[in-house]
Amino acid sequence: MDNKILVTRSSMPSMEEYIEEIRSIWDSHWLTNMGEKHKALQAELQKYMGVPAVELLTNGHMALELSLQAMNLQGEVITTPFTFASTTHAIVRNGLEPVFCDIDPETYTMDVTQIERLITDRTCAILPVHVYGNVCNIEEIERIAHKYGLKVLYDAAHTFGETYKGQGIGNFGDASCFSFHATKVFNTIEGGAVCYRDPDMGRRLYELKNFGIHGPEAVDAVGANAKMNEFCAAMGLCNLRHVDEEIAKRRAVVERYREHLEGVDGLRLNVQQPEVRSNYAYFPVVFDENLFGASRNEVMDALAQNGVGARKYFYPLTNTFECFHGKYDVDATPVALHVAKRVLTLPLYADLSMEDADRICKIVLEQKL
Ligand code: T4K
């Protein structure tokens, strides 16, 4: 094992705690298909997230894909290219057309002033991303969706545990999709969830995640298999006990980074949103080479030479992916392109030591001319 620092490191309970949690699985031999752990995690999460309903799934991507399918949409979906591949792929894999909206230069979330001009008679939904845990302009998105009769599905993969104006972040839009991947603030190894309000949405999601099976002899719909298994749910039950402490530790790292990097010419640190209780999911820094004296790539290389693995989340933009063969006009989202070319997310996880945070900042600042 080397002592490299990677962009993140999975949170894990003690081995003893996990073994204690999974012990009953050896008694029951019940490994998957909505067992006791699944039921317990679902109930715990509903409380913790402060939402009316939550459905557990195998991962955040299937949460997005099946939510779009459950909404029974056709046509165009307005979304952002400044995101992980999953967001755009979920749209395309549903036979829907992504229409890319530019991003706001402060929050990197969808620029709501650009949405209305992208609406056509084929638009059926808006799929914004609370990227890095930065909350979208929820009120304006609701207003536009209401005015044009559009569905709203939030990609909330980065926002587990956040609140906006005191309400759990899963309460907005028609549904919100969360990722519980190993790299996230809260993980179930692999996993995801959808928070929703409409019971019909819940019924449809359940069908889609379990082959459309309604009873031993009743298959009423064509569904996939996207059930969370008992070992993943058990990991979630353990991690949930510690998540507040984990978020507090992440916050301390973020504050340390800010002490070193705030106010440095040519560095733009992530926005702090007063009405959001943050989960400190990511620490993106946007480098202005002309002011700072070194480019994002030069800083990334310098960090790598010192065993520090920062990442370019989110470069390249999804609308430039090779799999789309130049189908989308990247010049239509100039702010997203500008940020994607300059952003670097620094390592961030609960157990990152203050000494390592200091060392990372020192390497970054040494690149400054
Ligand atoms: N929407 C958005 C906006 C998302 O960001 C994501 C996922 C999704 C939807 C889809 O959710 P999921 O279907 O994944 O639940 C990672 C994650 O795999 C992905 O979940 C995440 N977004 C994305 C932003 O990051 P990679 O390709 O960068 O992961 P990887 O394997 O390079 O890991 C990054 C670092 O994490 C490693 O350097 C070390 C650490 N790590 C990784 C793994 C796999 C661990 O500490 N433990 C681990 O088990 O995509």
Automatic annotation (TrEMBL):
Q: Which UniProt keywords apply?
A: Aminotransferase, Pyridoxal phosphate, Transferase
Q: Is this entry keyworded Glycoprotein?
A: no
Name the source's superkingdom.
Answer: Bacteria
What Gene3D superfamilies has UniProt attached to this entry? Aspartate Aminotransferase, domain 1 (3.90.1150.10), Type I PLP-dependent aspartate aminotransferase-like (Major domain) (3.40.640.10)
Protein EC: 2.6.1.-
Concerning CDD domains, the annotation shows: AHBA_syn (cd00616)
* GO molecular-function terms, A-Z: transaminase activity
> One Pfam family from the UniProt entry?
DegT_DnrJ_EryC1
Q: Which family does it belong to?
A: Belongs to the DegT/DnrJ/EryC1 family.
Q: What is this protein called?
A: DegT/DnrJ/EryC1/StrS family aminotransferase
Q: Which organism is it from?
A: Faecalibacterium wellingii
